[in-house]
Fold this sequence. Notes:
Layout: E1 3-8, E2 39-50, H1 56-63, E3 69-75, E4 84-90, H2 93-103, E5 107-108, E6 111-112, E7 114-124, E8 131-136, H3 144-151, E9 157-164, E10 171-179, H4 182-192, E11 196-197, E12 200-201, E13 203-206, E14 229-230, E15 242-243, H5 274-281, E16 290-294, H6 302-309, E17 315-321, E18 326-331, H7 334-343, E19 348-349, E20 352-353, E21 355-358, H8 376-409
Antiparallel strand pairs: 1-7, 2-4, 2-7, 3-4, 5-6, 8-10, 8-13, 9-10, 11-12, 14-15, 16-18, 16-21, 17-18, 19-20
InterPro entries: Euk_RNA-bind_prot, Nucleotide-bd_a/b_plait_sf, RBD_domain_sf, RRM_dom, RRM_euk-type
Pfam family, one: RRM_1
Keywords: RNA-binding
Amino acid sequence: MSEQQSTQEVPPAAEVGNEEKSSEEPSVVPANAIKGGRETSDKVLYVGNLDTSINEEVLRQYFQVGGAIANVKIMVDKNNSNANYAFVEYHRSHDANIALQTLNGKQIENNVVKINWAFQSQQASPDDKTFNLFVGDLNVDVDDETLRNAFKEFPTYLQGHVMWDMQTGGSRGYGFVSFGDQEEAQKAMDAMQGHELNGRPLRINWAAKRENSSGSHPRRNGGPRNGFRYNNGGFGPGGRDVHMPPPNSMGLPIGAVPAPQAPSGPLVPPPVNPQAVDSMIRRAPLRVTTAYIGNIPHFATEADLIPLLQNFGFIIDFKHYPEKGCCFIKYDTHEQAAVCIVALANFPLQGRNLRTGWGKERSSFMPMKQQAPQPPQQEQQEQQEHQKQREQQEQQEQQEQQEQAQQQDFSASEAAEPDQNSQ
Length: 423
């Protein structure tokens, strides 16, 4: 299969790896985007610290100083309410370079913009006949090359890549691997499930795929062979071959395989939508690792819940309130909690669809099953907090649906989100 360039979010090359070295070398060296195999795009510019009053038409007018523009996309930064960021794609690299040299560090409206080249990675060209695996629980030192080497010996392997954190430039702890044949992808999943990569066992699942226009159901776990491709924080058809399902009335990825609920074994979570995970990661500070799950059947027990919740990572603490129909799960990492929230949104459990969101982080936790009893007044206060969280979650879901609709309207085939803090 031929390869083409697709942009990827990573920090600028000049600013990665300049951190001061401590006198004591860590036992595990975290991977970063540059050493993970990223290269700069010569046609796509990242524009940071953009005034929120600027729309895409105005931005296009400013950047036409370089030449003809192919695409413009403004993104809302949920971590910074005072500024947005954007990507500007040119037809020619010469034009992009002129705009970079002319506008970088200049004041546009009320803000001084920071402009740099977006980053990209080598990816297989868009092909409907690809099958994608979600690979979770990656160690911090696993980069693109390490992930590719772990899977490249399997037949019909196409590509593998780690998802990078736009705040730090480090790994988000998960990635994706693509195959040209569904059966071979299944064999790779079976063989590598629980396999230790750099000292940490892998958790593998099918990446979500979108239902096709005819409304037919996907084949076993693999999903239909068409859909809107997600560009790892980018936008538009083509690019990274991970299918992005739009939210349906139930909030689940269209075409996702329903989880079996036979009493003979633990529940199996559905495939995750990588774009939804990325969005969920940005909805809460990185220090927050607690997921909230509501609308739990009152007769559901810890034995029903914990095996399901352990699919997403190591559980540090678990609090279940059967009378309120909710629980809180503190995971080892922020990313694990985000995957849990996305995967279990509207997940069917004993006749009810679960509701999920970020939980309120506490200053301290007791070990599981050793929580001190709480006075009624504190329980009432927590119940009010839970209700407020649910209302906020509904508002966030509506906003996310609007953002996804906007991203689907954008027609760029190559775009990326570099690390804003490194600009």
